[in-house]
Design a protein that fits this description.
single chain; about 450 residues; alpha+beta; Rossmann fold; Dna Ligase, domain 1; D-amino Acid Aminotransferase, Chain A, domain 1; 3 domains; 8-stranded antiparallel beta sheet; 5-stranded parallel beta sheet; 15 helices; about 25% strand; globular
Amino acid sequence: MFSKILIANRGEIALRILRACREMGIRTVAVHSTADADAMHVRLADESVCIGPPSLTESYLNKAAILSAATITGAEAIHPGYGFLSENASFAELVEEHGISFIGPNPEHIRMMGDKIQAKITMKQFNVPLVPGSDGALQDIATAYKIADEIGYPVLIKAAAGGGGRGMKVAYSKDELEEAWKVARTEAQMAFGNDEVYLEKYLDNPRHIELQIIGDSYGNVVHLGERDCSLQRRHQKVLEEALSPVLTDEQRQKISSIVTNAMKNLKYRNAGTLEFLYQDGHFCFIEMNTRLQVEHPVSEYVSNIDLVREQICVAAGEKLSFIQNDIHLRGHSIECRINAEDPVTFAPSPGTIKMFHPPGGLGVRLDSALYQGYKIPPYYDSLIAKLIVYAPTRTEAIARMKRALEEFVISGVNTTIPLHQAILNDEEFQRGEYTIHWLENFIAKNQQ
């Protein structure tokens, strides 16, 4: 097992990883920008290294600075968390070349799944259900017209290297297709430095359901059930729950079996999430995230597995500490992402935390790096806390989350707590009747 791990991240996820390391008796190295000198993970780590000014390119995306920090502190492994360099294949390769373990998948799998076209081709080989569309990148608009005519409108043009809703355009008719193709390519080039796009059938009212898996270097792959991540605003997840309120045990078992078999054939190692659109009883694979997800706590609750601990053990060359038959998915878990934003306009709200009172009680977990007097910097993502609850049933989990949100006090900045309270009180949400378009319609309706 590793004796020292460098955490190449910040905020709540850096603190989450640090806590797992502390419980395992592993020393930690925190890296930080000058803006994060007073961050909680920096205060609690055994060692800390400043890697640059606030700019992401000069700090948390600075590969050389992070590798230098690992070298001078003698870190044996690097955990990238999520975001930043977590799905950067070249960084993972550099880490390994420097004799340091990367706590994540093999670089080849990161690269393969980072290209959404290659990911679809790979999944097709393993009989994972796909959204109908092009087999690869669109070479020209004529090809796009031909495929769209075959599968029917509306269609979606998507960036091959995309994410976060960038490089995505819907065409509802032939007249709109060429413009959507041009705009998507331009956005893709600007956002990812790659203008390759592909075409898919646009599903008008799906749910977003993802499968959590983890594998080791010995061919073992286990799934920890699914998460329903359909509540999104501008393609960004807002609230997640496990398990999905719409899947039957039979549907869950079928898609989980397909996914785990595919990952075994791929010889996938470490944590990963396969994301699907689900409509009319059918699953359609859209992408795979080769890292720990923001919403991993809900899967930890229903499976009773510490994913970060298992990630570290797998990267150290150990076998998974459990097999599929050991996993008994029980109860229900909900996560609310609390952002430092205006709950109506969603404008960022950096500033100093004047009061901070976290909720508690049975089945309540808070992943946050906030403390009273902490100054939220304006340079990074606005996520400041993840409030997670667990209960035997979904109805009880909703009641527990409502209670926890009422207890949660953060003053000095605006937060999205009121939005989550409104969602939890909505009857359609309580019945589980929502799709990926529900939240934006809900917000628009409540702003009138």
